[in-house]
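User: Please fill in residues for this 258-position structure.
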């Protein structure tokens, strides 16, 4: 396990930094981000170009000292961020999905580790076949009214596409000091339930509907003013070199039962 400077400060405070997958699981796939560039055998840059109120660009995603960073920044009056996905590289169903992330989100912006399928909503009301969006964890600094949320996280499920047939359910955690250092986020996905974990402790369980098809993983940051995370700051997010809005990811792992 790599230890970042921000994490060292937590070691003396008794914060939970390590978690184990549920009993009976073995590692099948992982990226420890130990290289100097994104491993293109595992990831692609997801949805490059304009998305919401920013541009998704590869330059927003960097690797250094064993950590992956997705930065959100502003240059020449435009906002930039990034998303990466395992689509067509690694798609799986069931198992235990885990990541270790330090958040530094800002108003008008949020970040997430999630799963998706290109067939969401096809057919309608057949989630087992069509799949769904599974937000393993979402994080934002504030809600749409500017209320502080940085110590909390959200888990959300979306199905039946994103149009008039859309359905969803979600859960917001209590304050868990998630704005301080790294924390471990996990999802156990079985044929009969989703179980969401933070630092090894179960936070939420859902027993229906359940996707029963392979899905791909996504790490993302998004920018949309006045929507899910209040307004973009008038000064923006700082340039690429000096901006402080980002997520830092230690690893992504997928465990399965033999």
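Assistant: Residues filled in for all 258 positions:
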């Amino acid at each position: 396990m790599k230890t970042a400077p921000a994490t060292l400060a937590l070691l003396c405070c008794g914060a939970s930094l390590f978690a184990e997958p549920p009993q009976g699981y073995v590692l099948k796939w992982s990226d420890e981000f130990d290289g100097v560039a994104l491993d293109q055998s595992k990831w692609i840059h997801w949805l490059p170009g304009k998305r919401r109120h920013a541009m998704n660009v590869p330059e927003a995603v960097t690797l250094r000292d064993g950590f992956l960073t997705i930065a959100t920044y502003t240059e020449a009056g435009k906002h930039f961020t990034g998303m990466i996905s395992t689509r067509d590289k690694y798609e799986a169903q069931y198992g235990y999905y885990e990541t270790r992330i330090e958040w530094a989100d800002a108003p008008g912006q949020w970040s997430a580790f999630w799963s998706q399928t290109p067939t969401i909503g096809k057919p309608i009301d057949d989630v087992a076949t069509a799949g769904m969006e599974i937000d393993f964890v979402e994080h934002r600094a504030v809600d749409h009214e500017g209320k502080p949320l940085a110590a909390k996280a959200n888990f959300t499920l979306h199905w039946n596409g994103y149009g008039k047939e859309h359905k969803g359910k979600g859960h917001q955690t209590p304050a868990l000091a998630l704005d301080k250092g790294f924390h471990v986020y996990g999802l156990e996905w079985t044929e009969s339930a989703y179980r969401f974990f933070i630092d090894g402790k179960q936070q939420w369980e859902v027993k229906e509907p359940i996707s029963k098809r392979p899905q791909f993983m996504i790490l993302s940051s998004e920018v949309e003013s006045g929507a899910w995370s209040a307004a973009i700051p008038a000064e923006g997010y700082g340039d690429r070199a000096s901006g402080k809005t980002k997520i830092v990811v230690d690893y992504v792992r997928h465990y399965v039962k033999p």
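For context: Confidence is low (pLDDT under 50) at residues 4-16.
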